[in-house]
Design brief:
This protein starts with a helix and ends in a 6-residue tail after the last helix. It is mostly helical. The longest helix has 38 residues, at 37-74. It has 2 helices and no strands. It has helices at 2-17, 37-74. The chain has a domain at 1-22 and 36-55.
Length: 80
């Protein structure tokens, strides 16, 4: 869910700035810039990058947990 939210937020900020265009070449909306528009776009980009970072962190933690569990299944038990 973090990855989907991150891609959506970051992609939306890119679309608002005009860096990304629709495939058909026609724009379906015309954003009207106000004084807060640059801050709103930066906020969308920040949240998008934060969600993407959280998704990579969560993925890394789940892989690490899975590898720890997997290694304990194959190793013989050692009495202590």
């Amino acid at each position: 869910m973090y990855m989907v939210s991150g891609i959506y937020s970051f992609g939306f900020s890119i679309a608002l700035t005009g860096l990304a265009r629709p495939l058909s070449g026609s724009t379906t909306y015309i954003p009207i810039h106000d004084a807060l528009f640059p801050f709103e776009v930066l906020l969308f980009a920040f949240f998008g990058l934060a969600f993407l970072a959280a998704s990579f962190y969560q993925f890394r933690m789940s892989i690490r947990l899975g590898s720890d569990r997997h290694s304990s299944y194959g190793s013989p038990s050692v009495p202590q």
